[in-house]
Each structure stands twice: as C-alpha cells, then as structure tokens.
C-alpha cells in the first residue's frame, strides 16, 4: 500500500474540543514580550519562568511565542537582504547595525558576510564586462 504521507505514524493530537483556545495576548503582554525579544532572541529557563509569572502566561506559551517570533524575525531579515541584493549598491553593505550590537548575532553576521561576498563578486564581474566593452 502506498501512503500519501512521508511517514506512516499518526500524530497524537488533541481534538479541537480538547485544545485550549488560541491565546489573545494583551497589549501589556506583547509589549513586554517584544521588549524581551529585542534584548535577547533566546530565553534562559529562569527568564522564561520569571516572564510566565509576571505576565500570567504558561512557560509553554512564552516558549512558543519566542519560537514564532524568531521565525518571523528570520523571515524579515531574509526578505530585507533579498531586497538589498536586488538593489545591488556599488559599495559593500553592512545592514542592520542594531543587530550587530545584539548578543546573538551569528545569523546576522553570517548573512551579512554572505551578502558582502555576493556584492563583491557582482562588482568584480561587472568590472570585467566593462573592461571588455
């Protein structure tokens, strides 16, 4: 028998009636979560516990919010870099200076390095073309 799924296991999901309703965060909760996210993209266990108590949310809700927010942040970062590549400036670019001052900059640093390498190669290839014309 050929299965439409990649794997033949069945998820153990709660039925819709057994699940908690979707969390609607208050403006105060969102402000605090965004503020914490700007300080650090990843939370320690102690910080997550403290936030859950302060904001009256479960640790799982805090953890899930941060996972979703990091995904959104990475998509925004990738989109901005793609847009900058389309514009191809004539000098190397160091985007997102605020990210460089953050403690967790490995993703930003890696993307910036890749972008600068790409821009340099494009400049070299365009100068070779210019010299041949």
From TrEMBL:
Pfam families: Homeodomain. PROSITE patterns: HOMEOBOX_1, HOMEOBOX_2. Residues 1-29 are annotated as: Disordered. The gene is Cni-ceh-19. It is found in: Nucleus. This is Homeobox domain-containing protein. GO terms for cellular component: nucleus. Keywords: DNA-binding, Homeobox, Nucleus. It comes from Caenorhabditis nigoni. Residues 16-76 form the Homeobox domain.
